[in-house]
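Retro notes, structure queue

What went well: the backlog is down to a handful. What didn't: a couple of records were mislabeled last round, so from now on we paste the full input next to the output in the thread. Example, using Glycerol dehydrogenase from Cryobacterium glucosi:
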Amino acid sequence: MAASSAIRTIISPGRYVQGKGALSRLGEFLAPLGKTPLLVSDDVVWGILGQRATDSLRAAQLPVTRERFGGIPTAAEVTRLVGVIDRTGADVIVALGGGSTMDAVKAAGFLAGIRWVTVPSVASTDAPTSALSVIYTADGAFEEYRFFPKNPDLVLMDTQLVADAPAAFLAAGVGDALATWLEARATRQAHANTMAGGLPTLAGTALAELSWGVIWDNALPALDAVRDHQVTPAVEKLVEANTLLSGLGFESGGLAAAHAIHNGLTAAHQTHGLAHGQKVNIGSVTQLVLEGAPTQEIRDFIEFTTRVGLPNTLTEVGLSVDDEDDLRRVAEAATVQGETIHNMPFPITPDELVSALKSIERFSRTVRSEAHLPAPVQYVAHQVDTH
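Corresponding output:
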């Protein structure tokens, strides 16, 4: 993925809004964008925030039309939503929920030629701000990225929703966001293109690095606050790092090995129920190994992510060092032509990736034992948010 020109670029959503109770102002911010909104959410999310969204739209004298999200952002689901847009005459589509909902809505909004808005119910990924969607197969395996010529017109993040959700969602967002700086610095070193379509700008790389620092300073107190359903300054900072800083940082700073390894892990059925950020964290640890990063840097990363509640061993994502066939499939999927692992400043073969994946098991166990941290156990796979 070496850059073919000296063009540098940064992209971003039209507007980002964050704060406690921000959902009550959804109608106010939607009104300038369209007069016939279509709200898309799954039944769980709608049960939690549907009434507040409805009240906000009605206060802004906007009609309320809600469509149920099918659960996985497949090509078929995107096509179905385009049909709903055509049938309802919607001029702006709104995703309420997690990254999977947002991926489907962004793709449908683009195909239908209307504006799109993201209203995350959790801070579990950096998907809300981006101009791309990840499309999966019906059984949850990565299929393709779809890129769009613009970002969402509005991202509205209610931090009370984040605080009311299980802390595991916020922890998963940390896993996704921690990769941002690791991948941006690799992209910069390789002089590779970013998802924004050019070389990284100073701003994009700086935002990626800023997200890293904010996370290390605020993740642990923020997670404790969310366990008590409280919104504190640490929560506000972590939500911004997980969502805005990481979103702009990954898209305009560059992706590398960590997210490619995530995509490869979707080829192993054992990982399908795990959160996007959980799998990305495996990718981050493995990228550090591939880089030959200083031992202390890897140790610190393993200790910190363990305290956050993220996996850093194969065991925790349902794999083992003896799963030769599965690990080979993961490695081959992560290194296919066009994958972001080729933004690394050196080539990586499937054999090298298999070795790196195997190596994190023993090393992470050793680090955790020496730091008196819990031994790895397999995470319970559940559909929290596959992207």
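Agreed that this is the format going forward. Reviewer comment attached to the example: Residues 382-387 have pLDDT under 50 and may be disordered.
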